[in-house]
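Re: How this chain folds, sequence and tokenised backbone to follow
Notation: Tokens come from a learned vocabulary of local backbone shapes, not from coordinates.
Start of record: The labelled sequence and token lines come straight after this line.
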Amino acid sequence: MSYIQQCKNFDGGYGSTVGAESHAAQVFVCVAALAILDRLDCVDYQTLSWWLAERQLPNGGLNGRPEKMEDVCYSFWVLSSLSILNKLTWIDSEKLTAFILSAQDPDNGGIADRPNNMPDVFHTLFGVAGLSLLGYPGLDDIDPVYCMPASIIEEKGLKKSWTALERRK
């Protein structure tokens, strides 16, 4: 826990090492770890939520850090952290949904990092997970900490206070 706190930056985000630039994937790792440890009190909710919401670009996609391109995988990394922080509404969900769906391959299936690129398993997983966190019809709720169906996490008796289902209530 102490090391996570040392990786915290002025913008509320977390870098992969002490002094490293904040990155959305590392933010997820740190926030999820703090959720598991029941230490979300260490998170600067407002500053971090603002930084995460700023990851949304005009085309609806999300990036991992300022001045970088959008990428479907950040649909999970950013949304999961916002879900844990109870700030999913800080993202324009309609624009993000449209961005994720635009990266689908209508002929062969799968989701790419961005529209017109080759789909892969990595981006398909995180694109579908992002859609689930957004409440996309027909998808089961996903647990933002474990990236697994919330029903499985609840069934196993793991902490469930951060599930997407409860956050949308």
Remarks:
- The helical segments are 2-6, 24-36, 45-53, 74-84, 93-102, 121-133, 150-155, 164-167.
- The radius of gyration is 15 Å.
- The chain has a mean pLDDT of 92.
- The chain is about 40% helix and 0% strand.
